[in-house]
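B., you asked whether I could sanity-check this one before it goes into the benchmark set. Here's the sequence:
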Amino acid sequence: MDITIHTTVLPHTDPEASVAFFRDALGFEVRQDVGQGTMRWITVGPANQPETSILLAPPAADPGVTDDERRTISEMMAKGTYGWILLATKDLNAAFEQVQATNAEVVQEPTEQPYGVRDCAFRDPAGNMIRIQEVS
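And here's what the prediction gave me:
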């Protein structure tokens, strides 16, 4: 069997702020932007990985989501516990400096973790946790 990761989804609450973060802070390209207003589905990804994308989508847009579920999703997003993603780089210090220069919310500066990785963490404009690990 040959299965690859094609797209993963993170919620957004402000499409313009999310595009700016993923494009300017992380250097991703915007591949598709459909919809209007806050109901936009935006596909971004690293230029050197055209087969792998992140879909930034409005949270709880599904009509099957109840008002209570929408409230829970909003609360989790505000705490940064709803969506997250792990990214990787060979130069963690440079990546950290690039993202930090955009005034992104720093959660953790580059740190050697006791479980054997060196990483840092930011929150995107929607509150999603963005962790970046250093790889060789």
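One thing to flag: The chain has a mean pLDDT of 94. Otherwise nothing jumped out at me.
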